[in-house]
Write a structure and sequence with these properties.
Helix content is about 45%, strand content about 10%. It is mainly alpha-helical. It has one domain (about 15-65). It has a two-stranded antiparallel ribbon. A hairpin with a 2-residue loop joins strand 1 (about 15) and strand 2 (about 20). Helix 1 (about 25-40) packs across helix 2 (about 45-50). The two termini are about 20 Å apart.
């Protein structure tokens, strides 16, 4: 997965297969969620959670998680 940053921060954590952390851009979070939704990125739980998400839902979630 490409990232908009040259490095991953030391505070990177995986939450249910979703990589989050200080400095992870909203675009990167959104890409992860879209990949779960499409099945391109397999994860037993996240695929099920992301299936019903609209593009607007993904954008909102990405903005929220990137602000933490």
């Amino acid at each position: 997965m490409a990232t908009s940053r040259a490095f991953w921060p030391a505070t990177l954590v995986a939450v249910g297969g979703l990589l989050l952390g200080e400095g992870v851009a909203a675009a990167d979070v959104a890409a992860q969620l879209r990949n779960f939704r499409s099945g391109k990125r397999p994860h037993e739980v996240m695929v099920v959670i992301s299936k019903p998400l609209s593009d607007d839902d993904i954008a909102d979630l990405a903005a929220f998680y990137s602000s933490l």
